[in-house]
Amino acid sequence: MPYNYKTELQRYRKYYQSLEPILKKSSSRAYTAVIFSFLAVSLFGWYAIRPTIQTILYLRREIVDKTEINRKMEDKISALIEAQAVYQEIEPLLPNVDQALPSQPDALPLLVQIRNLASRSAVTVTTIQLPAIPLLGEDNSQNKKSTKTNTSAKPLPVDLTIGVLGQYVSIRSFIEGMIAMRRVVAIDGITVSPYRTGSESSQSAIQHSRLIQLVLKLRTFYITQ
Questions:
Q1: What is the dihedral of CA 205, 211, 212, 215, to 10 degrees?
Q2: Per-residue pLDDT reduced to its tens digit, 14-45
Q3: What's the pTM?
Q4: Structural domain for 139, as ranges
Q5: Are residues 107 and 131 in contact, defined by beta-carbon separation less than 8 angstroms?
């Protein structure tokens, strides 16, 4: 249907004419001005205040988030301070850990410790059996290859057999010294037998009858890095 501006003009003119008597009243004009002023102020005020309100809400959320992050950081700092204090307390003992579990087999230093222990305990070392490992602590090629393929630290055993000869008190002192050694040494087996000789005088036989022959199967460890 084509737009007929004359018809539409007549229709809106009727609305204007019906509102004209009302708008001529002073009270109606005042109310109308107040209402339109209030609507205008509300509309422009909303668009002016809305960014500020959004900024306030955003900043409040940021404050809450930053407060939580700050609390977590303070907890971590406290934990680090405690860890540092514990580390400083045990730092003098770290060399003992290296001696207990060295990074290499270190068989030769272990044998020196056993020899000194035997000397202090008044026993005689009769036999020493070691597996095929470097005495000076350099790891062999197979262990190097396994260390490269294994990224985690792993204790590796070293078996050895020690035979000593002495009286009961000395043998007991030697065993207690082995247990108290700083190097980790586990006793896997003990064989005790009286010492016997083929041909000796009666006096020597009596003296030797008091001797005990002890064979210890030991296992020590070193940890790969």
A1: -100
A2: 655 555 555 555 555 556 666 766 677 677 66
A3: 0.51
A4: 101-223
A5: no
